Amino acid sequence: MTTAPANLLAVRQLLLARLNVDPRTGRDEDLEPAEVGIVGDPAHRGGYHCGSDRVVTNDYSVVESPRDSAGLTLHASALDVGTFQVRSAGRTHNLRTFSTWCVAQCVANTPDSRDIREIIYSPDGEVVRRWDRLGRRTSGDSSHLWHTHFSFFRDSTKANRDQTPLFRRYLTTIGLLEENDMTPEEHAWLETVHKNLTVLDGRNPIGQVYTRLAMGEDHTVPSYVSPHPTLRSLAAQLTALQNALTALSNKDFTDEPAIVQGVLAGLKPESIAAAIPPTMAKQVADELARRLVA
Prior knowledge:
- The chain has helices at 6-19, 60-63, 66-69, 95-107, 154-158, 164-173, 184-198, 205-215, 231-250, 256-265, 269-275, 278-293; strands at 36-37, 78-82, 85-88, 91-94, 116-121, 129-132, 147-152.
- The protein folds into 3 domains: 6-179, no CATH class; 199-250, no CATH class; 258-293, no CATH class.
- The strands form 2 sheets. Strands 1-2-7-5-6 form a 5-stranded antiparallel beta sheet.
- The longest helix has 20 residues, at 231-250.
- By secondary structure, the chain is of the alpha+beta class.
């Protein structure tokens, strides 16, 4: 018997959670549960709303793509979305704008739309159009004036591949879903990542062991010396290096006597005498005479 796959049921639940604004009351403006369908009624034969027990000979939903023929199961692989109208971020959004947005994503071949085979929709409520990834068809029957049909390649439903990202992105784009809103599965994944990252932070026994290892202290012999650098030894080396750099920065590397001696060694006596001011000439001569006598 044809059944609804879990991945399309998740899309249905997501859309109803955000677009059925008042779930306690049936309203034309809301997307009601009866307007979001996956499995065709008992008389329905052929097409993506049917599983393997209801397909027909040369069914286009099976034979036109190896993704469909290889993915055929008892699961239906389609989703119908009915009319709705919501206000968000100062704008009105409805089935028409939703459908054209989804088609634009398919045309752009965004990663989250690549499992969609076709969308049958109306951009204005007057004409029916069909976007077909395989380029086989361009229109559909008049029922699509008031509902939009999504066909998903059957291998994606067989694999239970998550189909919510495209629809979550739409709801986020129009302001009905926060960027940080996550599914239970996404929360579980984030918790696992957080747990793995905090194993080494010292707040649990395993983390404390790793902390002691890093410090070079995970041993029972007081005289033990770690054969490899530890946080403690690296810190000591860094401190010593900082102290050495500080000492060098405070040192005066200028040797004035050596500089004067070097300059004088390159001068002739006449140049030296010419450089001495007249007021100091006698003093210099007397000092030289004293040194010669000595």
